[in-house]
Amino acid sequence: MPGDFRTQIEALRPYLLRYASMQLRNPDAAEDAVQEALLAALSAEASFAGRSNLRTWLTGILKHKVVDAIRRQSRELPASAAGEEVDLSELDPLFAEDGHFKVAQPAWEGPEDALGQKQFFAALEACLARLPVRTGRVFLMREHMGLETGEICKELGITPTHCWVLLYRARMALRECLQTNWFGK
Amino acid sequence: MASCKEVTRLVSQGLDRNLGLGERLAVRLHFVVCKQCYNVGRQMAFLRRAVQKLSQDESGKGG
């Protein structure tokens, strides 16, 4: 029944909103993307028939809407922001002159246990929020939405090399942040 | 021998593209003697799993 389908879709709205907010960091843009995705889903009910997982299907639709929003947003980002972030000098304090680590990088204890804790994800989100805008965006497009680097480059109009630099800096910053705020505590 | 700076960068790229044979070898050799980079590599892989779980766990349960 159509009514049923609408109810099921609406029930997933909080999840979808969370998903979009994570990526877009802008409540209005996230709300718009979810709204567009829900409308698209309603008009495409027929194409859902026979698929097992409604959430997966909806997430797929939402990803496209989020990428559209990112494309719009990145047109508004000044080009200078792109240049600044290729610079990796913030990592210099980590390494000695010969390029080796200055201090020990301990293994994390019980990382799998952390994945079962709500507070851990709160810490992770706080660390993500501290990343520079473009760095965080690229990292989440890659790791949260699972897009390939080529697709990310295309959408943001950056080179693969730039993309890898941003991903590297995001990973280094996040592990440092989690070391400080979670694993090293 | 590659530096930690180079190796951590390669390890990160290994999550985004297929590394060449020489690159993979450089990472492996470095890991043998450098626990720091090995740990960092594990942490980068863990970050991927953690971020994938971010919106999944608390979804649809009012959380």
Description:
The complex is a heterodimer of chains A (185) and B (63). Chain A is mostly helical. Chain A has two domains: 75 residues, Rna Polymerase Sigma Factor, Chain: A, CATH 1.10.1740; 104 residues, Arc Repressor Mutant, subunit A (Orthogonal Bundle). In chain A, helix 2 runs parallel beside helix 5, helix 8 packs across helix 11 and helix 9 crosses helix 11. Chain A is globular. The termini of chain A are far apart. The mean pLDDT of chain A is 89. Chain B is mainly alpha-helical and 63 residues long. Chain B has one domain. Chain B has three helices and no strands. In chain B, helix 1 packs across helix 2, helix 1 runs parallel beside helix 3 and helix 2 crosses helix 3. The longest helix of chain B has 23 residues. At the A-B interface, helix 2, helix 8, helix 9 and helix 11 of A face helix 1 and helix 3 of B.
Classify the beta-strand content of chain A into a percent band: under 5%
Question: Separation of termini of chain B?
Answer: 49 Å
How many helical stretches of chain B? 3
Radius of gyration of chain A from CA coordinates = 19 Å
CATH class wording of the largest domain in chain A: Mainly Alpha
Strand content of chain B: under 5%
What is the number of helices of chain A? 11
Whole-number count of domains of chain A: 2
> How many strands, which pairing sense, and closed or not: the largest β-sheet of chain A?
none
